[in-house]
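Good morning C.,

I know you're traveling, so I'll keep this short. The sequence:
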Amino acid sequence: MPEIITFDLLKRFFIEIFNILKTSDPKVIEVWIEPSEVLFFNRYNKYQINEFLEIIDSVSIKKGNYSDYIVINKIPFIVEAIKSLDLDIRDLALIITFDGFEALIAEILKLNNYKTINNFRFSDKSNLKNPNSQKRYEIDVIAVQKNYMLFIDAKQWKRKDSFGAMNKAGNLQFTRVKALVNNPEVIYKLCKKLKMKTNMEEMILIPFMVSLEQNFFKMNENKIPLVSICQLNSFLQELFRNKNYFKTIEFSRNLN
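The tokens, ready to paste straight into the viewer:
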């Protein structure tokens, strides 16, 4: 491009894209727009636009039926925009739905070198009196790094939500993880999905919740962490050092 790509230039670009995304359908993760809709590009030709977008992971040019389109992927856009905008990540997260919120959590985990899966469902077949009494569970996001396995319940809570509701949700998340431990065949299936070594003898399981907004409460009564999306990155970076403050489950069993 004829001008140096500065921080202010990037900021202007991300602000314009963000304003475009605010008017889009929150259910749509990949947004296609005409190049002319991005006023930032009006002074550049298509070669200069391509050169600029080489440094942007979340925005690209794709061929449509008859012409080129600017394509914006909301999840990586939010992660990139945090570095370039004064906006809080919770404001950026408003351009996505709950499913997108779970995907954003997974994206932040991946940036911290975790393997992830979303919406893991399983049946608790332990201590059954009859096959019809088994309980069904779903965990929003599961992430693993080395012998640490994280179980995340995604909540788009507001600050006004009561401690009682958060406390109950944290206890339910812990119940889900305990049910998982009681079903070794489920953990074996989970390890295969995450491409883990299934002969790992010891794992540390950590349940916690991630909310859209920051709350006054950091943990529930049983030391299940409540983390806002804007604090998630720092929480992950400090997790191994602070894990003794949280409720964890140590799982020691050969899965082969």
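Safe travels,
E.
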